[in-house]
């Protein structure tokens, strides 16, 4: 029997048994004593090409969780900008394996400022990561970021457009960190003994500097809260040592 004739017979059986699956038909054929080696392959192809089965087939279930993006320290680093108030953002960077994070205040979304902040906040401390993971915004998906990545031999990876959940780890930490910073910025001037000399006006940068430089307990409380967040709730980890420097003391 030719391949064409075998395909015709198998298609007839498939329809006769109500578009049965390949597994069920294969068991039926084997129980009849058929030992043709080509039969299973032709049967799979016949059912795969069946238009009615394709029309009524169930969609594949979406995975409930994704595979981890990193298996070691500084393998994948996620990066995002979050706006605190008009004209003021913070660049948030987090290591996907250790959850260690760092940040820096930026006044513009220019690629050159993002590059300088990333080098200062992360590469100068931890070294160049293997991969950076960002959203598809123009502040990250541009020639200057790619040029910096090529110079440091870093792979760049972006999420799909309009899908912040694709970078869920960083977005979740953004929410917590923003809440802590906003609470710290609401503290009154009166709780500080002396503002930093470069402070001018009661704007967001001055308030953030108060959290770092303030001498009263209230300011130190919020500053320590930020440090706790960046060091993770698990305390000091073995991966928090880079180039002989204990990262938990930063």
UniProtKB/TrEMBL annotation:
InterPro entries: Integrase_cat-core, Retrovirus_Pol_polyprotein, RNaseH-like_sf, RNaseH_sf
Domain Integrase catalytic, chain residue ranges per copy: 59-246
Gene Ontology molecular function: nucleic acid binding
Any single Pfam family the record assigns to this protein: rve
Single biological process term from Gene Ontology: DNA integration
Record protein name field: Integrase catalytic domain-containing protein
């Amino acid at each position: 029997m030719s391949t064409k004739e075998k395909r015709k017979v198998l298609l007839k059986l498939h329809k006769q048994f109500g578009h049965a699956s390949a597994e069920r038909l294969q068991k039926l054929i084997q129980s009849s004593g058929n030992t043709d080696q080509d039969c299973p392959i032709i049967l799979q192809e016949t059912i795969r090409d069946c238009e009615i089965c394709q029309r009524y087939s169930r969609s594949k279930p979406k995975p409930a969780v994704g595979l981890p993006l990193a298996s070691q320290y500084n393998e994948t680093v996620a990066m995002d900008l979050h706006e605190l108030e008009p004209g003021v953002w913070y660049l948030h960077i987090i290591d996907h394996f250790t959850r260690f994070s760092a940040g820096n205040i930026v006044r513009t979304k220019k690629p050159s400022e993002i590059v300088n902040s990333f080098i200062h906040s992360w590469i100068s401390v931890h070294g160049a990561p293997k991969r950076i993971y960002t959203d598809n915004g123009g502040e990250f998906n541009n020639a200057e970021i790619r040029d910096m990545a090529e110079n440091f031999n870093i792979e760049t990876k972006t999420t799909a457009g309009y899908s912040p959940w694709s970078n869920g780890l960083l977005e979740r930490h953004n929410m917590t960190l923003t809440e802590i910073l906003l609470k710290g910025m609401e503290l009154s001037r009166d709780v500080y003994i002396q503002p930093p000399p470069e402070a001018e006006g009661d704007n967001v940068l001055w308030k953030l500097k108060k959290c770092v430089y303030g001498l009263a307990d209230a300011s130190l409380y919020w500053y320590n809260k930020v440090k706790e967040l960046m060091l993770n709730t698990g305390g000091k980890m073995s991966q928090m040592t880079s180039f002989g420097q204990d990262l938990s003391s930063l």
